[in-house]
Structures are given as C-alpha cells and as structure tokens.
Design brief:
This protein is mainly β. Helices cover about 5% and strands about 40% of the residues. The chain has 3 helices and 24 strands. The strands form 6 sheets. A 6-stranded antiparallel barrel has the order 1-4-5-6-7-8. It has a 4-stranded antiparallel beta sheet with strand order 10-20-14-13, with no helix packed on it. A hairpin with a 5-residue loop joins strand 4 and strand 5. The longest helix is centred in the middle third of the chain and has 9 residues. It starts with 10 loop residues before the first strand and ends in a 25-residue tail after the last strand.
Length: about 350
C-alpha cells in the first residue's frame, strides 16, 4: 500500500537495490562519478562497488496499468514517488563473470531525477572491478516483469493430470496438469528466469514433511501456497488462504535458503489455477499489468481467451491483501501420489 496521494497498488515487490554513489567509476571517461543514466554511461568505464555498498530494500508497486511507485514501508526512496526503468546494463568482472542489472530512476513530482538505483539481476562480488560492456533500453519491462512472476524452482515435481509427477524443467506447452480448482488443465506457456538469492529475494526452503511434501522443495519468497492442517501455519494464514512462502517461515522446517542463485520456471494456464508442486498446493502464474509483459510480443493478443481468464484468481479464491482467501469446496481435486514413472528422454526445448 502507498501513501494517501494515490490508491494502493495491486501487488508489492521488495527488491534490493544500490544507490548510484555505491558504484563509482575508478577508471574511464566518467572517472570518479557514480552510476549515471543511459545517455551518460560510457562503454569501457570500469566501476567498483564502494566498501560500504550493502544494498537496500525498496518496496515497489503498481496500481493497475499506472506507473511503478515506491510503497509505504519502503526503507529506500520517497513514499509515493514514481519509478522509471532507464536501462539494462551489462558489466564484465575482472574474473570474467558477467553481471546484468537494471537502472531505475526515482522521479520527483515534476518528473525530474531524484535518485538513481542499480538493481542487479545476476550475482556480483563487492570487491571486483566491473567494466561496462553493454547498455540498452530494449526489453526493460519484460526483464522487470520476470522479478514479479511466481515460478517453480528447477527440480520441483509437478503433478500431471494422470497423477504422475514430472520435473518442472521437462514440462512443455500442451501438457495437462492436475489443478485443485478445475481438474485437468493445459499448459499454455512456460518461461524461465534466474534469480539472485540475496536479501529479501532469498528463496524459501520447505523441508520434507512440512506441508505434506515428501522431499525438500524451494519456492520463491512471494509464491503463494495453500496452507492447511498445521496450527502453527494457520496462525500465519488460515487453511482457506493462499499465503506467501516468506510469511510461512518458522525457522524450523520452513526456512530461508542460501542457494547463490536459483533457476525458476513459470507456468501459464488458461486461467489462474492451483497446481501441485511436490504435493504442495501452489498458484500458477497470474497475469497482471506487470507480469503480462514477460510474454513474447504479440503472444497474448493472439490468445484473447487467456487474457479474459486472468481477470480473476483461481476458482473459489478471492484476494485479501497479500494473501488470497479460499471459498473452495472440500471436494476439490486432491493430488494423487506419484506412480512409477518412465524416464523422459525428451530434449528440453528453448523457453
């Protein structure tokens, strides 16, 4: 929720950013300067993070199709200020590693630049020197949208319509999944992204047995799960609610995970549905003004039935703040236990 100058956003993201002065040029055309905007960035400038650069959490939200804004509770920036996407930059470290990052701009009420932020999309090492090797203004909304999309980590077992399970990275468009709210449903699109496991973006590890799962499962921190059966979890969200994974952390069998960075796979169905990930009821991708930009250009326009189906959440669920309340009947589909599977020898298609 943002300040009273504007309506509350439909969703909130918590991201870790660096201020412009946290990353300075120590060799090149802009010697001594902090990170600049697209027109000021000079290729081959060499940057280094300052000794005090730790990154700060910023809360961003969007009201419908309106601009990104800094939300109430953010420890960074002015509450209610608009955030613009300036550019996507690529650096090469002295050890040969590559770091990609988005440059974000906080605007004043008269659209002047108030602050510039760097949002790393891949891991970085504070004491490395980074040479700027690329900059672009293409595909910014799509790259940012990936950060807002709920997705399943590599290796997660998804329940198919016949009750068998398959690793998420082998699922393909056309495969039929078992959903809790509508039975068998076809996968329409799959996307893949890699997320840095730092700060507020650390994934959540659900240990075997915590939510009726037979093995450890990793979820993104904002992926919403349907909780039930356990009193300690109901305190965080009643059985009729979808609750963010980060809000289920208890320090015992649901904990933060340090995985460096995680490969995530997005599942888009005709509508927002509840699928089964290692027997845990979890949401599929919900298209919003932010997340729909992750789709290929023109893809959604040629499939109007999908856009229409995402104006509401899964059947029997209604949104309440950061959770989604369920009014579903008790006779909804339950996940079948996995049957003996044959090896899948298909080659993974590019996503």
């Amino acid at each position: 929720m943002v300040s009273s100058i504007s309506p509350p956003p439909s969703a909130v993201q918590i991201l870790r950013v660096f201020k412009a002065e946290d990353l300075r040029v120590d060799c090149g055309a802009n010697l001594g300067d902090g990170l600049g905007l697209y027109d000021d960035l000079a290729l081959d400038d060499i940057y280094q993070f300052t000794a005090t650069a730790l990154g700060q959490p910023i809360r961003l939200g969007r009201n419908g199709s309106g601009p990104l804004q800094i939300c109430k509770g953010s420890k960074t920036g002015r509450i209610g200020a608009t955030i613009a996407l300036d550019s996507l930059v690529t650096f090469m470290a002295t050890d040969g590693g590559v770091m990609e990052a988005l440059v974000l701009v906080e605007l004043t009420d008269d659209t002047c630049v108030a602050e510039t932020y760097l949002l790393p999309l891949t891991p970085h090492v504070p004491r490395q020197r980074y040479t700027l090797i690329g900059k672009t203004r293409e595909g910014l909304a799509e790259r940012f949208a990936r950060l807002a999309c709920v997705a399943f980590s590599r290796g997660t077992q998804i329940t198919l319509a016949d009750g068998t399970q398959r690793r998420i990275e082998t699922i393909r468009p056309g495969d039929r999944l078992l959903t809790r709210d509508a039975g068998a449903q076809e996968v329409r699109w799959i996307g893949q992204t890699t997320s840095q496991s730092v700060g507020t973006e650390k994934p959540v590890l659900v240990r075997a047995g915590a939510l009726c799962n037979e093995r450890d499962v990793i979820f993104g921190p904002d992926h919403r799960l349907l909780v039930h059966d356990r009193d300690d979890l109901r305190k965080r969200g009643p059985a009729k609610y979808l609750v963010r994974a980060r809000d289920l952390i208890n320090g015992i069998d649901i904990v933060e995970a340090d995985n460096g960075f995680v490969d995530y796979f997005m599942l888009l169905l005709n509508r927002h549905h509840i699928v089964f990930a290692d027997h845990i009821a979890a949401e599929s991708l919900l298209l919003t003004p932010v997340t729909r930009t992750v789709l290929p250009n023109g893809w959604l326009e040629r499939r109007s039935e999908i856009a229409a189906g995402h104006f509401r959440t899964a059947s029997g669920l209604r949104t309440t703040g950061d959770t989604t309340e369920s009014t579903a009947n008790s006779d909804l589909a339950k996940p079948a236990r996995p049957q003996q599977q044959t090896k899948d020898h298909r080659t993974a298609a590019s996503l």
